[in-house]
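Standup notes
- DV: blocked on the single-chain target, sequence here:
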Amino acid sequence: ISGYSLVVQARDSGTPPLSSSVTVNVDISDVNDNSPVFTPANYTAVIQENKPVGTSILQLVVTDKDSFHNGPPFTFTILTGNEEEEFTLDPHGVLRSAVIFKHMVSTEYVLCVQAKDSGKPQQVSHTYVQVRVIEESIHKPTAIPLEIFIVTMEDDFPGGVIGKIHATDQDVYDVLTYTLKSEQKSLFKVNNHDGKIIALGGLDNGKYVLNVSVSDGRFQVPIDVVVHVEQLLQEMLQNTVTIRFENVSPEDFVGLHMHGFRRTLRNAVLSQKQDSLHIISIQPVAGSSQLDMLFAVQMHSGGFYKPAYLIQKLTNARRHLENVIRISAILEKNCSGLNCQEQHCEQSLSIDSHSLMTYSTARISFVCPRFYRNVRCMC
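- DV (later): unblocked, structure below
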């Protein structure tokens, strides 16, 4: 307890008795009676041979139960095991290499490290760090090519995480890092540590091929990353049809079914090869295991097919479509629960272009806006 606040009252012996109160604050000063604590108590780390001088090996973690002026900053010292000065320890507790290690020279080092707090008198504690020198990387990283589809309203893309690169390495202790060529950093970024791809705002319609690579410190491997950006037109939203799927998650649909279903759907609804199929959005149906896919078809001449025409085409081809994935319903109007005849039911569709949903798998990522369907009776 760092302090107490007391209210003290003095009362005299007169008639009637009179009294007065005062507040007394008592602060408890901290004494430096706790030593720093290493977490964990002892450490084990590895470093590959031939790594450059200054390679980070280990981050020491130290806490202290005393108040802040009796705790950090801590002073770190290597007491034993560093007689040849192969290691350095910076003020933040990061252990780094001071030489280029060779596996044939020595395979193991044991260091005794001391941490000293900032109190008076200072308290100290010790830990042991076992560092193993292993052979350098012999396997190249492997990465899966990634294709990303982004659907957004015209000139209204807010940016965000659009996918993640999946890479592996057979060398157990390899740490993979990801880089993007500098000339593309005005539009995209790649997280160096986890491979997440971030798109900045305002992407134009079109195809982008990113020059991404993954490195294990010795080998650098290029990764094929292609980004397709499609901007929606308002006219497109007025001619949409929804296909509702049964028992499928967005990620499973994107990773397992979207490519095949798109091809089958094109064969079912396109009247001419020059027509264009646009998948506008996919999103789960709240409170169920169903999934809605919103799409429209653009004619070669530039206009869009009416929903009634597309629904007729879909109905005729439904059995063929269900060879790919089970369909729960084909929706144009959604008047369920409204007490009006279908011809008196008006549907409006709104797109929230700033609420993007990213469905990412190892090979395909689909980024689309959230949509809302509203219906009302006109009778």
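- Follow-up: The longest strand covers residues 345-360.
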